[in-house]
């Protein structure tokens, strides 16, 4: 039914493009070939793949979220990541990736951006955003900076309501708008406009910035001088539909100055409303023509004038070919030593009387297995649903252990309900983290560290996948040293930029990792 609906939209309305949100590489490539074959004008194929195609497609390995990348010291690695994402897109026939997210996440309670951002520092967000953009665009895939004019300082998700930002233009100019200016200078191909209510830009009641001429035309086009494509954020989101029916939103988006309407809902009704607006003088036909020309020029530059059929053979392996290598480098470079009051814990040399406490898990994971094997550790596990073992676990850990290694796993990325970390788990973490002989490894969103900011020995790992867990085990053994810096402030005594990144011991690695060969 869905394929028939898309086919009808292409045949009836000659739609400008398609955005894929789920499926698998073979299915998407097969459908793209079919849709491109039946269309009169080549379709601009887009995806919302901030951390690569694995964000949307099964069988594709995920890259880390941008917040983890915000901890790495070298922007070149972000460029390599962007290039790899671009190659993924090219292989599957995608011309536009709705990335990077260059919102400055300066609100720990942000329910929608959060770890999708590079962090809270405008300079780092801008630098890494430019490198991600350049990596993609250097291989011929259009980047899309989002969400203009800045979605970082909100506590409401625009998928469900219209967030309000009560900041002056001066405040916006000094912070939120800075990365957008930098990416405009660097030549970003497209921009996505957010659904926000910002009275200092447009005080019209309930007017989303995506539908505001003062925001899109006056601020972005005229004041900032942006000449590339503009996409609305999805027009089916409640930040818009709460106040504008779908057809009205489409008209208002074009009046505002947008070129492309993302997920506009009822396409036929939207076009009818647009034609009515032209007849009534609300829209000029010449404005529509200019937008169409801008889209067609973009399609030409993206190679759609010389469209090639996507080859299906080996497509999944081709998409995944470089992912793990970059993930491994990001994991090693991002890992952040936040506090070390007992230098004997890192690297840990002892194999006697070692305990491993895995919090948030009820079975062994990669980190637990590494610690058990390497240090002959006694393993204790406690998931977030366990409400009975806290007292007995404390009692057992009081006994005879010289070293306690703690891993915090499997909690939510979102701030609601304290990231899903139970009260019992918080109590246990706090109890252990105050011990001189315990070192805590936090695998996940670093904002959750607010629960144990006074930990005496603490490492932020940012993600909870196997490669990150291996990197943490390597750090514990002294194979690598910590290089990362905290990309956000998590509490008063652990602010942006925190991190002990000195070479406090000599790490070791494979010859290949430093450009040599084993031979």
Description of the structure:
The structure is a single chain. The chain has helices at 2-13, 25-38, 66-69, 75-91, 122-137, 169-174, 178-186, 213-223, 238-241, 246-256, 267-279, 285-301, 315-320, 323-334, 366-375, 390-398, 423-433, 466-477; strands spanning 17-20, 44-47, 96-97, 142-148, 190-193, 229-232, 336-340, 354-359, 378-382, 403-408, 438-442, 457-460. The chain is 37% helix and 11% strand. The model has no long low-confidence stretch (mean pLDDT 94). The strands form 2 sheets. A 6-stranded parallel beta sheet has the order 1-2-3-4-5-6. It is an alpha/beta fold. The chain has 18 helices and 12 strands. Strand 3 (96-97), helix 5 and strand 4 (142-148) form a beta-alpha-beta unit. Helix 5 (122-137) runs parallel beside helix 7 (178-186) and helix 10 (246-256) packs across helix 11 (267-279).
Which properties best describe this structure?
11% strand; 519 residues; 18 helices; single chain; globular; six-stranded parallel beta sheet; alpha/beta; six-stranded mixed beta sheet
Structural class category: alpha/beta
Total strand segments: 12
Total number of helical segments? 18
- Fraction in helix: 25-40%
Query: Proportion of β residues?
Result: 5-15%
- Order of adjacent strands in the largest pleated sheet: 1-2-3-4-5-6
The quaternary structure here is: single chain
Residue stretches low in confidence (pLDDT < 50, at least 5 long) are none
Q: Major sheet: size, sense and barrel closure?
A: 6 strands, parallel
Mean pLDDT, as a whole number?
94
Question: Termini separation (Å)?
Answer: 58 Å
C-alpha-based Rg, rounded: 25 Å
In N-to-C order, the SSE pattern is HEHEHHEHEHHEHEHHHHHHEEHEHEHEEH
Globally, the shape reads: globular
């Amino acid at each position: 039914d869905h394929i028939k609906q898309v086919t009808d939209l292409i045949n009836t309305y000659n739609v400008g493009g398609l955005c894929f949100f789920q499926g698998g590489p073979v299915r998407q490539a097969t459908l793209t070939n079919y849709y491109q074959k039946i269309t009169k004008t080549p379709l601009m194929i887009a995806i919302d793949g901030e951390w690569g195609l694995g964000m949307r497609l099964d069988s594709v390995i995920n890259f880390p979220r941008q917040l983890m990348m915000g901890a790495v010291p070298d922007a070149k690695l972000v460029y390599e990541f962007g290039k790899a994402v671009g190659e993924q897109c090219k292989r599957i026939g995608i011309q536009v990736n709705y990335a990077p997210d260059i919102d400055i996440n300066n609100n720990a309670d942000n329910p929608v951006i959060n770890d999708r951002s590079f962090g809270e520092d405008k300079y780092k967000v801008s630098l890494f955003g430019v490198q991600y953009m350049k990596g993609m665009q250097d291989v011929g895939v259009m980047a899309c900076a989002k969400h203009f004019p800045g979605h970082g300082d909100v506590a409401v998700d625009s998928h469900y309501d219209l967030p309000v930002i009560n900041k002056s233009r001066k405040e916006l100019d000094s912070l939120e708008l800075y990365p957008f200016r930098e990416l405009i200078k660097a030549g970003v191909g497209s921009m996505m406009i957010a659904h926000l209510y910002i009275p200092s830009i447009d005080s019209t009641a309930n007017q989303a910035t995506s539908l505001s001429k003062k925001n899109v035309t006056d601020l972005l086009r005229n004041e900032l001088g942006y000449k590339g494509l503009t996409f609305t954020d999805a027009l089916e989101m409640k930040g818009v539909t709460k106040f504008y029916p779908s057809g009205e939103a489409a008209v208002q988006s074009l009046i505002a100055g947008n070129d492309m309407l993302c997920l506009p809902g009822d396409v036929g009704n939207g076009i009818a409303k647009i034609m009515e607006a032209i007849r009534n003088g609300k829209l000029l036909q010449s404005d529509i023509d200019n937008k169409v020309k801008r889209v067609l020029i973009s399609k030409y530059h993206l190679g759609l004038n010389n469209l090639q059929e996507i080859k299906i053979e080996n497509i999944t392996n081709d998409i995944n070919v470089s992912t793990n290598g970059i993930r491994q480098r990001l994991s090693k470079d991002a890992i952040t030593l936040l506090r070390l009051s007992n230098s004997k814990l890192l690297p840990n040399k002892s194999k006697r009387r070692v305990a491993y406490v895995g919090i948030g898990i009820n079975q062994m994971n990669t980190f637990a297995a590494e610690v058990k094997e390497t240090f002959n550790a006694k393993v204790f596990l406690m998931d977030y649903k366990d409400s009975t073992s806290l007292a007995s676990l404390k009692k057992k850990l009081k006994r005879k252990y010289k070293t306690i290694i703690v891993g915090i796993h499997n909690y939510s990325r979102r701030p609601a309900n304290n990231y899903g970390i139970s009260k019992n788990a918080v109590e246990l973490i706090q109890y252990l983290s105050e011990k001189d002989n315990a070192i805590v490894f936090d695998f996940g969103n670093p904002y959750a560290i607010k629960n144990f900011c006074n930990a005496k020995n603490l490492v932020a790992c940012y993600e909870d996948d196997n490669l990150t867990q291996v990197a943490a085990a390597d750090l514990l053994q002294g194979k690598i040293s910590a290089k990362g810096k905290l990309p956000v402030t998590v509490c008063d005594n652990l602010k942006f930029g925190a991190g002990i990144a000195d070479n406090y011991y000599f790490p070791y690695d494979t010859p290949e990792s430093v450009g040599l060969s084993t031979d």
